[in-house]
Amino acid sequence: xxxxVVDRALLDRLLDTDPALRWQAERDLAGAPPEVWEATxxxxxxxxxxxxxxxxxxxxxxxxGGAYFPVEPSTVExxxxxxxxxxxxxxxxxxxxPAALAGTAEKxxxxxxxxxxxxxxxxxxxxxxxxxxxxxxxxxxxDMDALAAWFAEHQLPDGGWNCDWVDGAxxxxxxxxxxxxxxxxxxxxxxxxxxxxxxxxxxxxxxxxSRRLLYRLSTGDRLSLERDPAELAYPLRxxxxxxxxxxxxxxxxxxxxxxxxxxxxxxxxxxxxxxxxDGWWVQxxxxxxxxxxxxxxPPGEPSPWLTLYGTRVLAWWxxxx
Length: 321
Description:
By secondary structure, the protein is mainly alpha-helical. Among the domains are: about 40 residues, no CATH class; about 80 residues, no CATH class.
């Protein structure tokens, strides 16, 4: 992306943020040259949220002593977001240079999943967890071909995935499918993928596109999820919403050199409608749970992170029409 047409006041506020966000605004919205945004990105390891989260890492390479859950039970209501997988997800999303985690991949070879005590880099049975493990492993320089192949082997007949397949689920979940696609896309970006993983990605994309990210295929009714897909919140965790969904397809189109699929039009319209007249998106209800520290604003306030993502998606979409 060569830089989007963005209100100067909004852009100035996005540039006056943590290096983890600032470098992305410089690259994707301000059109800054590589030497500018790369210098800002390098600061993620030594300043702000990136440095702070790095300082929370345990000597054994984990965070909070656990793979998906902290070793000590949390006293805060909800899913804890402090363990290794969630911490790696955040650092990767923020653009940390993986060199700052030198030795972590090897140390995590001794980490075990809470499910059946399975080795960390081999993944487990949950499609979402395996997708994040693929992406994090590739980012840290691991060979993740075997776990990427798992997705082609465990794709359901309707084209998607469901983390509850191990308990007998035979119909895909939009959440599980979106997360699986993120993992497959990361693998394809890093390695080119295989014929099987590329076909799995295409099939999973069709599963979501046929629903336009918003509707049930069987009835045409709006997806009856715990949270409406139009309600957005940062951090972006595991749910499908119109921002995470369109952001995935933006990244996929970038890799494929393809135009946006017109079936995304309604989701993009919903995303656009959620933007305030001043160009900002407002923080919604976040999934509760313990965090290491605050990374955005409270519900009801204008969110720099949602605004970065939303502005980037709309710039991609509008440039193609």
